[in-house]
Design brief:
Elements (H helix, E strand, L loop, with lengths): L16 H6 L29 H7 L9 H10 L10 E7 L2 E8 L1 E3 L4 E2 L6 E2 L5 H13 L25 H6 L7 H7 L7 E2 L1 H9 L16 H15 L3 H10 L8 E2 L14 E3 L6 E3 L3 E2 L7 E3 L1 H12 L6 H7 L18 E5 L2 E10 L2 E8 L4 E7 L6 H13 L16 H5 L3 E5 L4 E8 L2 E5 L6 E7 L2 E3 L8 E7 L2 E5 L6 E5 L6 H7 L1 E5 L4 E8 L2 E6 L11 E4 L1 E2 L4 E4 L2 E6 L2 E6 L2 E8 L2
Parallel strand pairs: 6-10
Antiparallel strand pairs: 1-2, 1-15, 3-4, 5-11, 7-11, 8-9, 12-13, 13-14, 14-15, 16-17, 16-23, 17-18, 18-19, 19-20, 20-21, 21-22, 22-23, 24-25, 24-32, 25-26, 26-27, 28-29, 29-30, 30-31, 31-32
Length: 592
């Protein structure tokens, strides 16, 4: 597998740098900090509901072209969903025809409503391909150029050192900081209200980029929020209206819409859930944010099958549109990236794939085409730990296994406690502003990339460790370089050095105490000595906030660098810079 499957897990502040690297191939619209261990949560069980036989009878599934035995194997992939749980809807497309579709689990636990092929679910970042298609339709009409400076259409953006182009927004190579990380940092919780204007204003306040445009790839939802604005300003109609007129209606996608008003009543829409953090059961997991472009498409498996058919028999656009959607980005140094335009070009067990995943609050989705085999798999889920990417792969194994290369095999080796503990420690990358901790406990190693119990590392020998199926069976490795132990993250594009934790004196820590203000986020945070510990009070600025103030211990990494919950905090003579997820180096000036 050339890229890492992932299904992002919702939490409260921002994906940290390692999580971006580990889950880099199938980007999704997601909440800010990744509780990386949460991907291993077991599906909880809620109140026992009656009428499961009636739920089973209510299912209507197409099964043309698949044998009873094959259907049974596919159904087994979703066997953990039932009348007591949320679940998923699966669609199998072969040769442009939806040959099998079925719902597993419940659309609405509160009302005992089952998931069916007709259920409407949000698809998170699977939506991005529709935003990209809208841009290409406008380009084809001569109304814009992909190499236009974005400020031509959104002049309220700052004049960066080097202009950002529409093409770079499409490929996530712009360097624009991720709006979801930024809004979360500013204290806007997901159950707060946030408008499209709020999102645009946040992006426009950022005076710096994560990196020089097109020098590297970093997934950023901001790019697609800006593309939505460009569609609106060029066409004279909101993205929701433009896509309905030019894509959804012509393809007969009658159950598909872009939700730009969180109060809309949508017939057949599923609820969305997350496992409760304790006590079992589920909790509602919704959002009141209204930006579009990066997500916000609600649809059904059947409607996505209609969109899939347009790839092979285009009626919207033409072959030129499909070629544009599948054209991968090329960096300044000539390196081709996997990301095209709202789609990821990759392979799975030797077969070419065109795909994208999605996550927003409890909704999870995977849209995966195997174009050379004429098979597309659509998995739409309404619970945060559903992991549709892994489930989709399992269905692909059933349907296409005979045409696939053997699955990669790693022989697990047995290492002594002494052999394992040699890898434990604190790892730091200055260029990437990334901190990782490897802990040894209970005769095992755990990668700590945030909160929770961490990811158990499976030893394969020679310094290589697996991260398990929930992380796409990715591997990391430990190496020695000039006497330094290093950790190389999956994909090989980030290396961290093991460091000895700094031990700042009480006087040094007291000098760091004070109030720090960010004009870009419009927040003031406080650093204080509390006893012998340095503490960060991250106070939100949203007047309509539900709860956004958080307090974290500042834990030393290297001199003047600390972690604080999800954040990496770097102090300097003028204040501090805070990095989280896909938003790096945000300046906080110290009040004098």
């Amino acid at each position: 597998m050339s890229t890492i499957k992932r299904q992002e897990v919702e939490a409260w502040h921002g994906l940290n740098r390692a999580a971006r690297r580990l889950w880099s191939s199938q980007p999704k619209r997601c909440a800010a900090v990744l509780l990386i261990a949460s991907s291993a949560l077991l599906l909880a069980v809620t109140i026992v509901l009656p009428r499961w036989p009636m739920v089973a009878q209510a299912q209507q599934r197409s099964s043309g072209g698949l044998s009873t035995a094959t259907r049974a194997k596919i159904d087994a992939v979703f066997s953990d969903f039932n009348a007591h749980t949320p679940g998923c809807v699966l669609g199998v497309v072969r040769g442009g025809t939806l040959v099998y579709t079925h719902g597993y689990g419940m659309a609405r636990l509160e009302e005992n409503v089952p998931l069916t092929p007709e259920s409407v679910l949000e698809i998170g970042s699977v939506s991005k391909q529709f935003t990209a298609a809208s841009i290409f339709l406008l380009e084809h009409e001569g109304k814009l150029s992909l190499d236009d400076d974005v400020r031509k259409y959104i002049p309220e953006l700052p004049a960066y050192d080097r202009p950002v182009t529409i093409r770079e927004l499409l490929h996530h190579t712009s360097g624009v900081r991720d709006v979801i990380s930024l809004m979360s940092m500013s204290g806007i919780a997901f159950d707060d209200f946030a408008s499209e204007s709020d999102a645009l204003a946040m992006i426009a306040r950022q005076r710096e980029l994560n990196f020089e445009p097109n020098s590297q790839y970093m997934y950023s939802n901001s790019g697609y929020v800006l593309l939505s604005q460009i569609v609106k300003r060029v066409s004279g109609m909101p993205l929701a209206q433009f896509a309905k007129k030019n894509i959804f209606a012509p393809l007969g996608m009658t159950h598909t819409l872009i939700v730009d008003d969180h109060t809309l009543v949508i017939p057949g829409r599923s609820g969305t859930y997350a496992p409760q953090r304790s006590g079992g059961g589920f909790q509602i997991d919704m959002s009141n944010w209204e930006q579009t472009g990066d997500g916000a498409v609600d649809t059904t498996a059947g409607d996505l099958a209609r969109w899939d058919r347009n790839f092979d028999h285009p009626t919207v656009g033409g072959k030129w549109l499909i070629d544009e959607l599948e054209t991968q980005g090329i960096l300044n140094n000539g390196k081709k990236i996997d990301y095209a335009a709202g789609l990821v070009i990759g392979t799975y067990r030797g077969l070419r794939t065109v795909s994208h995943g999605g996550a927003w609050q409890g909704f999870r989705a995977q849209f995966e085409r195997f174009p050379d085999q004429g098979v597309t798999l659509i998995t739409l889920c309404n619970v945060a730990n559903a992991n549709p990417g892994v489930r989709t792969d399992k269905v692909a194994d059933i349907l296409l296994g005979s045409k696939m290369a053997p699955a990669p095999q790693h022989a697990r080796v047995s290492l002594s406690d002494d052999e394992l503990s040699q890898y434990a420690g604190l790892y730091w990358s200055e260029p990437d502003r990334d901190v990782q901790r490897v802990e040894f406990r209970d005769h095992k190693l755990f990668l700590q990339s945030g909160y929770g119990p961490g990811i158990g590392l499976v030893p394969f020998g020679n310094g290589e460790f697996g991260l398990g199926p929930d992380m796409g069976n990715a591997t990391l490795r430990f190496t020695q370089n000039a006497g330094r132990q290093q950790m190389v993250l999956p994909g090989g594009d980030e290396t961290l050095d093991r460091v000895e934790p700094a031990h700042p004196t009480e006087g040094q820590m007291r000098a760091m105490a004070g109030h720090y203000h960010s004009d870009e986020l419009q927040v003031t945070w406080k650093v204080a000595m509390e006893g012998s510990e340095l503490v960060l009070h991250a106070n939100g600025a949203n007047p309509n906030k539900v709860s956004s103030d958080e307090t974290y211990d500042l834990v030393p990494v290297v001199p003047n660098v600390f972690t604080a919950g999800p954040y990496v905090v770097q102090f300097d003579s003028d204040g501090m810079r805070v990095s989280v997820g896909r938003a790096g180096g945000i300046r906080f000036a110290k009040a004098r």
